[in-house]
Write a structure and sequence with these properties.
alpha/beta; Rossmann fold; globular
Length: about 120
């Protein structure tokens, strides 16, 4: 069974992401974090197969979390998809340059979400 870490400071958004992911019918368990700091703790403890990550969060932003994770050899190839309202082209480019696997702009479009997740071999 795959482990998916959903990181967003909005509980509603975490639920939307989990519900949309469930349309893929991939057997998985979800871990949730409301900020990058909590996400780091869950990452070290559970070693997820995929991270779905918001950009704007308290304590540790998604982009800072991404930088920290990609600086660790063990997690260089871990799929991390940004799921964020940061839609500016320069934000997308920055996240991809820092090692995001892909980028999904909120509000989440089911078709687009499924297409991007399906590209990742889980």
């Amino acid at each position: 069974m795959k482990t998916i870490l959903v990181v967003d400071d909005s509980r509603i958004m975490r639920n939307i992401v989990k519900n949309t992911f469930s349309l893929l019918k991939i057997p998985c368990q979800f871990l949730e974090a409301s900020n990058g700091k909590e996400a780091l703790q869950l990452l070290m403890k559970h070693k997820p197969d995929l991270i779905l990550l918001d950009w704007n969060m308290p304590q540790l932003s998604g982009i800072d979390f991404l930088k920290m994770v990609r600086a660790t050899e063990e997690y260089k190839k871990l799929p991390i998809i940004m799921v964020t309202s940061e839609a500016a082209r320069y934000n997308v480019i920055e996240a991809l340059k820092l090692g995001a696997t892909d980028y999904i702009i909120k509000p989440v479009n089911e078709k687009n979400f499924i297409e991007k997740i399906s590209k990742i071999s889980l």
